[in-house]
Amino acid sequence: MNAESLEQIKAQLIEQKARLEQDLKDMGFHPGTKAPKTPDFPESGGNSDDDNASEVTTLADEISLGEKLEDELKDTAKAIKSIDDGSYGTCKYCGKPIDEKRLIARPTSSSCIECKKTLTQEA
Fold it and tell me: Count of alpha carbons within 13 Å of 23, Cβ hemisphere only?
């Protein structure tokens, strides 16, 4: 992969990292810490059972989404680190180069297509 492509991918990853961190903060999460989500129940306490159940369901949905965003943030940070340490673009399973088209399409990829297919048991 040429240096220009690598710099473009790094810039994209840095932008993605900032966006993910902001999205998590906007949702009441504390990215990069072990602190739990800050619940936001504006009318808590005097609500009906239905309202309370709805708030708990909403919180559960937000926590699930937050966990997915946290995972994406971790993958993004790992990709940035691997660019900085010179290991970006190498499959973590077989050690072969990851196709540049795959990295452009999914910059956080850490495995080549062949290994990914094997892991997901695709034919």
Answer: 16
The per-residue pLDDT for 35 is 75
User: Residue 37: inside a domain, yes or no?
Assistant: no
Strand locations in the chain, DSSP E?
none
Asked if the structure places residue 41 within a domain, the reply is no
Say what the pTM is: 0.81
71 near 20, Cβ under 8 Å? no
pLDDT over 70, % of the chain: 90
Q: How far is it, in rounded angstroms, from Cα 18 to Cα 22?
A: 6
Q: How many of the other CB atoms lie within 10 Å of CB of 13?
A: 22
Supply the CATH number for residue 70's domain. 1.20.120.910
**Structural domains counted in the chain:** 1
